[in-house]
Amino acid sequence: MDDRSVEIRAFLAILLSILFLYLYQAYLIKRQPPPKVEEKENPELVETRGVPFISSGEEMEVETEKFYLRFSGDGSLSSLRLKEYKVRVDDENLRVELIKAQTPPYPLSLFIYSEGNTQPTVPEMKGIKEGKEVIFRGNAGKVEVYKRYNFEDEYSFEFSVTFKNPSQEPQKLSAEILWSSLHLYASRIYNESFKGYVNGKVVSKKKVKSPETIGEAEWIAHDMKYFLGGLIPISPPFMKAYIYPFMEKDIISFKTPIMVLPAGGEEKIDFLVYCGPKIENNLKSLKKGLEKAIDFGWFEFLAKPILYMLKFFYRFIPNYGFVIILIVIIVKILFFPLTRMQYRAMKKMKDIQPLIETAKKRYADDKEKLQREILNIYRSYKVNPLSGCLPLLIQFPVFIALYQVLMNAIELRHAPFIFWINDLSSPDSIGSIGIGGFQISIRILPLLLGITTYIQQKISPQTGGEGEEATKWMMKIMPIFLTILFWAFPSGLVLYWCSNNTISIIEGIVMKVLAKRK
Prior knowledge:
- This protein has 518 residues and is α+β, with helices and mostly antiparallel strands.
- The protein has 2 domains: 235 residues, no CATH class; 250 residues, Distorted Sandwich (Beta-galactosidase, Chain A, domain 5), CATH 2.70.98.
- It has 10 helices and 20 strands.
- Strands 5, 6, 7, 8, 9, 10, 11, 12, 13, 14, 15, 16, 17 and 18 form a 14-stranded antiparallel beta sheet that branches. It has a 4-stranded antiparallel beta sheet with strand order 1-2-3-4, with no helix packed on it. The chain has a two-stranded antiparallel sheet with strand order 19-20.
- A hairpin with a 5-residue loop joins β2 and β3.
């Protein structure tokens, strides 16, 4: 197998890896039809199987600096919209609805378990707004229950539950605070996974078929592509977390141990709630480790510096499209020695190809002698047949890290570039055409990608020899394959690849000129 064939296989491995990542995110993680709850005994969770009927009660709408909120009759959140984030770049009215729970139990519902009763109750509550606070009051048997929300001008807000015992005898109870599925629709904006932070590690769940104990968690969260909904216990700082299926949604919750309220006594549980964009600085400012919910995959150690570079250069060049091009230039400069090594290796392989062909004819009937002769040729001319693909393999983690950043960084969401490209997180489009009853979008960047790939291949040195015909066929099909593959990719990622191809073409021309001078 010649160097060019090995190189193409390595290149295809990178492309297939990117294709797998894309298909996994776009299709495999979409919500499946909700499974039925398995009637499975679990001593720790058996009490949560019987969820009480929850009446909607009187709803209450509140507007804060960051949110439009709707509270249900039990003081839980049935809707939360982010005022600063649009669903579509061209729609000024439709805002991202981070919480859109169509059926109870809603996020921040409260289940109360009295002594000796495994069936929880949900107190009906009445709410009032006092300044930046929203307060709900209700009763659960002889216990008064208060829910307090305190909203500042941030994406986080304080939430507390207070239990008061005005009676003359002690009361025993435990409470479960729900952080149920925030959104029911399978879309790339709201696609959810469930996370908890237990013993210094992030535990992730997709869908559950039966109740599971997550453990003593520092926080629980619903993780979406660009947004995050997190519930953080403050007092106590750790609480036992559970996840279980209920009807069409999954419920993740915190549950307290048995609390004993003496006559005239009270107990209070404090939380911090975050509902907003997955911006690392926002999450770090909470100082609760919630930023660990942001996951860029296996090569996160490379992805985070790339994201920091994007944000750093954006301070000086306030256009993420030009910043992406600048990142490409920087990466190409850093890898230029490897690229030059690859070019020289391919040139050497091309120079010794006639000698290899002669050896093949001379030792056509003796494979062992042929292999020895080819190795001698490699040694004599100091050629490593794998050195051509080695630079590609070294750059592979960088490509994957860039892919993760450009696919998932909220900084690129609705970020414009130039002309028709008004959202680097979505495929570019200048219109559509109807073919056979289907509407096909016209995308310029994937077409440019195919064209630049073809030009890049034309100026790359060819090694010839065995496998040449297969290599030529692969080179013909590659531009078409890439154009189709990248047709539905975000324009930021396609812009990166187009820029990479263009600079590679310039590199190839420069190295050819330098080689001729020698």
